[in-house]
Amino acid sequence: MHADMTDSSNLTRFPDHAIEQYDGTLMPVRGSITWSRVSMRLSVRPLVAAFTTFCLALAGCTMPPPVNDPDAVAEYNETNDPLEPTNRVFYAVNDALDTVILRPIALGYRAVLPSPVRTGVHNVLNNLGTPVTLANDLMQGNTRRAGDTMSRFLLNTTLGVGGLIDVATERGILDHPADFGMTLAVWGVGDGVFLFLPVLGPTGPRDAAGFSVDSFVLDPWGWVGKGNTVRNLRIARTGLSAVDARVAVLDDFDKVKAQALDPYATIRSLYRQYRTKQIDDARGDVTPQAVKKSP
Amino acid sequence: MLNRRLLLLASVSALLTAGSARADAADTAQALVEKLSRELVGVVNGPGSATDKQAALEKLIDRDVDIPTVARFCLGRFWRTATPDQLKAYGDLFRAVLVKNITSKVGEYQGVTMTVGKAQAREEDVLVGSVVTRPNNAPNRVDWVVSAASGAPRIIDVVAEGTSLRLTQRSDYSAFLVRNSNDVQALIDAMRRQASQPG
User: Fold this and answer.
1) Among the listed ranges A35-49, A58-72, B100-114, which one has the minimum average pLDDT value?
2) A194-198 long-range contacts, CB within 8 A, separation 24+
3) Which end of chain B, C or N, has fewer beta carbons within 10 A?
């Protein structure tokens, strides 16, 4: 506990730098296996070293605060963003590209297509993603969630006309996220340093690696078929997924940019909290339930 | 022997009292959120101009949100380095910006519905779950954190899909301060600009 806890104890029952988890308990700042140990095991260390050198050359590293300011040091460690200057460069680039390309497309998409059509597109894309979700549910050892994913896929593909209508949700079997970054987290891999990557946006070594595994290894639609039609379908799916995902956060993202004094830091915080919640739910094999009205 | 029995009895009754106190706190918190949600939805979907609605929302915020506690939390470690004058200015601006951020988009929430779930007593506060649904949006899980630490039970945090409003706000302020040489005055100036921006 902190020495200064007394003067603010009625307000903060934990030190300023701790992350409060969903259930109010304190979250350890790093996982049991640090990223450096994982990267050693996977012998990608040279790659990480090369990437780090590249980043250092590009924009430099954040210097840790002086050791005589323990609060600032704790905050620095908890934020775990030693590549912040580089990340901010990529954030600025991404943001500029988003402003001129993706956001206008998303706005147009939302303005032109009626809501049921957008929902249909979203449902189809979601349904196409269920094999990856199922694989990760199983690797996380989550039998209840895997059952939900199975039921959703069968119901929505048949009764839901190829995934167009989400009949499973109407029957109370709700969607949940499962990706390989979460699977790695369940296996004990920590968040690692914060990264803001071009295109991908806010992430970390674990989640970026997980994204690659999901996209290029686990996704069965990447295994089958060849030729121009298949390639075009894949491109269409990727493009639509990007627009669909961007539309979902149009208002929220505008709000963050308008209301935050430091949008980059706010997005970093939101991303971390959101991920922590998703991973907690995956650890507990939590199947989302519609909140029942209290009696 | 008698002493031991007395002790046992005392500890059992203490446990029971603590348990029922927590259950009471949970009931109170749930009642608070249910009442607030009815009123919020009523204001947002009700008749009246945007200005009327904003004024009504502001009243609800002042009544049910423990703004000083949230403000203090969001300033984090800088609470100790600020001067009393700065704390006063910060507290006032915090309230103004909070109210503005919540009320400015009241028109966008037309058609909102809210279902309040069961309250869950935690060590020092109560979590009340809810699902907020806006037309053409996926339902959002929103949890309300209610604490009676400052006297009466009031809301000290809102957690949307696992992201805490006050934690996010504190990260924002803290990052801003670190990039402005830990100068609380710079934060106050920035907040003053936010508060005076139109809509």
Assistant:
1) A35-49
2) A194/A79, A194/A80, A194/A81, A194/A83, A194/A84, A194/A87, A194/A268, A194/A272, A195/A83, A195/A87, A196/A87, A196/A88, A196/A90, A196/A91, A196/A94, A196/A264, A196/A268, A197/A90, A198/A90, A198/A93, A198/A94
3) N
Q: How far apart are CA A145 and CA A143, in angstroms?
A: 5
* Nearest C-alpha neighbor of A254 from the set A147, A102, A151: A102
Q: Which amino acid is at A131?
A: P
B77 at A interface, C-beta within 8 A: yes
Distance CA A128, CA A238 (A): 11
Nearest CA in chain A to B33: A294
Q: Which of A47-56, A196-205, A244-253 has the lowest mean pLDDT?
A: A47-56
A240 forms beta bridges with none
Contact predicate B176/A261, CB 8 Å: yes
User: Does pLDDT of A24 surpass 70?
Assistant: no
Amino acid at B71: A
pTM comes to 0.80
Chain A interface residues (partner B, CB cutoff 8 A) = 4, 7-8, 10-13, 16-17, 19-20, 22-24, 71-72, 75, 115, 248, 251, 255, 259-262, 264-266, 268-270, 273-274, 276-278, 280, 288, 290-294
More confident residue, A65 or B40: B40
Chain mean pLDDT for chain B: 89
pLDDT above 90 for B183: yes
| CB pair distance less than 8 Å for A75 and B174 | yes
pLDDT band of residue A22 (cuts 50, 70, 90) is very low
Q: Which domains can be identified in chain B, with CATH numbers?
A: 2-196 (3.10.450.710)
Cβ contact A72–B77 (<8 Å):
yes
Average pLDDT value for residue range A234-261: 91
Concatenate the DSSP letters of all residues of chain A into one string.
Answer: --GGGGGGTTT-SS-TTSEEPTTSPEEPSS-SB-HHHHHHHTT-HHHHHHHHHHHHHHT-PPPPPPTT-HHHHHHHHHHT-TTHHHHHHHHHHHHHHIIIIIHHHHHHHHHHS-HHHHHHHHHHHHHHTHHHHHHHHHHTT-HHHHHHHHHHHHHHHHTTTTTTS-HHHHTT-------HHHHHHHTTB---S-EEETTTEEE-HHHHHHHHHIIIII-GGGTS--SHHHHHHHHHHHHHHHHHHHHHTHHHHHHHHHH-SSHHHHHHHHHHHHHHHHHHHHHTTPPP-PPPPP-
User: Is residue B84 within 8 angstroms of chain A, CB to CB?
Assistant: no
